[in-house]
Structure prediction request, 637 residues.
Amino acid sequence: MNSLALILILPFLGFLINGLFGSRLPKALVSFIACALPAGAFAVTVANYPALCATKVPIVADLFTWAAFPGFKLEAALYFDQISAMMCLVVTGVGTLIHIYSVGYMSHDESFSRYFAYLNLFLFFMLMLVLGKNMVMLFTGWEGVGLASYLLIGFWFKDSEKTAAGMKAFIVNRVGDTAFVLAAFTIFYFAKTLDFQEINAFFATGQVSVGMLNLIGILLLVGACGKSAQIPLHVWLPDAMAGPTPVSALIHAATMVTAGVYLISRLSGVFMHAPGAMTVVAYGGAITAFIGATMGLTQYNIKKVLAYSTMSQIGLMFLACGVGAFNAGLFHLFTHAFFKACLFLGAGAVIHGLHGEEDMRYMGGLGKKLPLTFATFGIATLALSGVPPFAGFFSKDEILWSAYAGIGGGPVLWALGSAASFLTAFYMFRLVIMTFLGESRVKPEKAKGIHEGPVTMSGVLVILALFSVGIGFIGMPGALREMLHTSAPFYDFLAPALPHHEAEAANHALETTFMLISIVVAFAGIALSFLFFSVKKELAEKSKAAFGPVYDMVSQGYFFDAFYNGVIVAFMDWVSENVLARGVEPTLDANVIEAPSETVGYASRLFASLQAGNVQAYVLYVFIGLALVLLWGVVHV
Prediction:
């Protein structure tokens, strides 16, 4: 069997076995199947790296012919180049760790095997998305990821709010998917192919106008915004916290929200020739990064703070892609997978220890009772805040520098990205202080038996924290590389698969200045957070009161939900009731259903009357028939 196909098949086997037979198997066996098969996919992924690194030539596996007709052929094929290899490593590696963590976290759940079946299915579809050689393969995984997220967000389906959250994620994503399909049809109309490499090559020939390229780019961007929770299609992400916490980690770190960044990077050959679309990608990402960070300031639910953080960080990745720094965007995707998974799973350990409590106002002082969780969470927070030498510093600094020096970059994009980074450091340390430091505010009924999770949970946190510290060194910025006379293996690895931008690359003095500013920004955010939430706590309340309506607007997510419910959903309800139900439906009933039905009934009665058993009438019908035949003959001879 082809090894690339094996990467796909192993998680799918886990889904089949646990989905069909899991309820009759012991939990230990369910856990082993659920974790071992994704781990096997990870091992196969790693095994394919040496050949790719040695030759730099993508590995292709043609599985079968999906469709063929004159002038067109669509292969179900897998494509393992540098981008998909990196994505596979994240999906299978971090995904497997989340599976292992789930063994402890979900051990008391009555639907244990169903949970792992869905989790394996999620990995299968995400791997199909990143390994697909053409847009049809990617779209199959794209839709499958949407289905799996719906199943997992609404996993506790007996709770109507959780079911509604799953439904919301599914429906909002359909808006983006519609734009994606329109983009695919438009691309095929011009390029006559859906193969990624052929698409990028065709649009580099200049046979399509820039205006049309911009339109295609915008449609692809809307599709990416749905999956990656970017403004204005971000509203499903906070509600997605309704699912089990490891699911949130999987969605936010290793799978779904990264799909949009992957799509834009995979079709970089289209975007690089669509300057208008690139500008929208850059500014849309920068604005999303900033607005997401402001929303993180006002949340008290520990998981929702992390959710808005994800929205903001993905915005930075979009910003990088919009200025042509696709490699920087993918590097931040790579490092973010480790520290964001560590943060979500750390939050899960806190919630697990507090018997379900998620409100930070009822936490505090947990650092003494959960020291390992506190330590790993602290490391991941430093990484997310962009503090050197943690992983997030290297990837975020590269994005901020590119926001200034990249294609179409400048002070405005840099300022928006830096402001988002400052706010990130501020609200993440607000989270740490409110959760782990200071006096305990834990409710008495939640305070009993607070303890670290089992080794399956704690061990995973340690591994992710170690990567959050060290993984950034494989992608050091140019100024540091020159200073230390070293290389950046991550960027060198990705180079054959991505367009390379050299603008301002040699100005390392200026880059160093920007790097120092980034460090000052991160420490300023942390210092201000300690001042507001530890040293002079009254400042936080005074600021909240001073901002009044602005604070309310931000805490309500800028009223995006209220707008959608009050305008779009209300309009659709009105159309459904007053136009479709009262106007279109009766007309359809009368002309499409009732009229044919009455015609058939009339014909049935007519033919029934012809067979009344009257012999004289039968003879008459025979003569009428003969007369009609003779008449036809006279006319046509």
Q: What stands out?
A: The chain has a mean pLDDT of 92. The CA atoms of residues 473 and 617 lie 98 Å apart. Residues 560-610 form the longest helix (51 residues).
